Amino acid sequence: MNATPASTDVIVIGAGLAGLVAAAEVVAAGKSVTILEQEPEASFGGQAWWSFGGLFLVDSPEQRRMGIRDSIDLARQDWFGSAGFDRDEDAWPRRWAKAYLQFAAGEKRAWLRERGVSFFPVVGWAERGGYTASGHGNSVPRFHITWGTGPGILAPFVAAVREGVDRGLVTLRFRHRVDELIIEGGAVVGARGAVLAPDDAERGAPSNRDVVGDFDERAAATIVTSGGIGGNHDLVRERWPKRMDTPPASMLSGVPAHVDGRMLAISESAGARLVNGDRMWHYTEGITNYAPVWPQHGIRILPGPSSIWLDATGKRLPVPLFPGFDTLGTLEHIVSTGYDYSWFVLTQSIIEKEFALSGSEQNPDLTGKSVRELLRQRLGKGATEPVEAFKRLGVDFVVADTIGELMAGMQALTPDVPIDADLVREQIEARDRQLDNDFGKDAQINALRQARHYRGDKLIRVASPHRILDPSAGPLIAVKLHILTRKSLGGIETDLDARALNASGAPVPGLYAAGEASGFGGGGMHGYRSLEGTFLGGCLFSGRTAGRAAASAV
């Protein structure tokens, strides 16, 4: 029996950033591509649209202008010290990590600039570590905020795909849910599944799953770019790392519900090997969205380093688990306490300088590319309007003039868990006494002082060290912080051409993977920990690789 002829050169499953980059590369090669996406067209661009737009670059002009001395050797030291590769399954992730570092230190910035992407001039310092030089963390600031945030990164690739539609090279099929990869003669030759009913759900909101038809799409190459598992809390708990005790009973979602991991199991059924499924990246600074778009919608606070971090009972977190230093180290500690939340205690002076909220919609000045609004919001008096809105409307915020009132408000939010008010007061007073001199033994205060030697932090990110109980810095603020699901760090194992590999290590003919579905490359190029700004970059790099490889193979 003759095989059904291909209807397109390449199929891309998933219309997020990695999928759009891959499709743009196929179009650039003059080949045809069909994009299959189960969500409505309103969600075109996937999770990247919601992002803050941070990108990891090495030795960039922006860094050099801020007085930062970076190098690929230092970046490699930081990456591998953070990744902690220690498994047989890390062979390909190691290679992907090395290749990505070359990209980040080489053509990444110029490649994006050619497509109209530019960056905010102040480089952020994410994941500061706080251990030894060879341990986890960024030794220097590397977090480059895209002018236009997530939509700004998406824009050139959306434009390339739309242009491909006009040229007859791209077919967009929304509401097409892939249920199976088609295998003929030992090769993946396409995908089949259900056509879902139209839905006018807004971007990111849940859409219906009513089946109105089916489809069978054939191609010489198929690229899976369907994302991870962060919207599927049952799957997150099932794959929860054993080293982190019991998974949280309650979590917020940092991604829409359709980020459910379905395509990972479907790819595995087609012969692809899944690796490092217990490696994942969830944030500990989640707050409940007062205007949710998807179920359990949470927003992440991007904190500066000054807030005092307490566990659910009021005990200060250990060194170096300060805000912005070690995401997974903090997560591991919090779940070990037996609770699934923690607290920030801070002042109005700190929130004005140090609180940013992750996401394009929470940063309208940067997203809208408005210099006037940016100067008003970031350098004017008070916190940004989105932060003040959460402080006023968010259910997780307590604002008070005295420590006694603050503690009463915190206890009212969590009546079933006693907070040791005397201990909290004692810890804050002890911390405040350390500010009587320009030297001291409190590691967090010393870290604040060191951070302010970097002029980017001193300018817009780190408040001048002051007493928490100083009335002139008030009012006092407490924020209840939830675990916020976000990224899968494992996925489909791929070689450096983004070809999906089987259990024997051989390529699955016709099948490629990119983005979060591939652990951003190789099945987990971050290892155990991310240096931040590497998720969008991983989508760019792996999507580009997959698109070029698939186009050259057809």
From TrEMBL:
It comes from the Bacteria. SUPFAM superfamilies: FAD/NAD(P)-binding domain (SSF51905). Gene3D superfamilies: FAD/NAD(P)-binding domain (3.50.50.60), Succinate dehydrogenase/fumarate reductase flavoprotein, catalytic domain (3.90.700.10). InterPro entries: FAD-dep_OxRdtase_2_FAD-bd, FAD/NAD-bd_sf, KsdD_DH, Succ_DH/fumarate_Rdtase_cat_sf. Keywords: Flavoprotein, Oxidoreductase. Pfam families: FAD_binding_2 (PF00890). This is Oxidoreductase. It comes from Antiquaquibacter oligotrophicus.
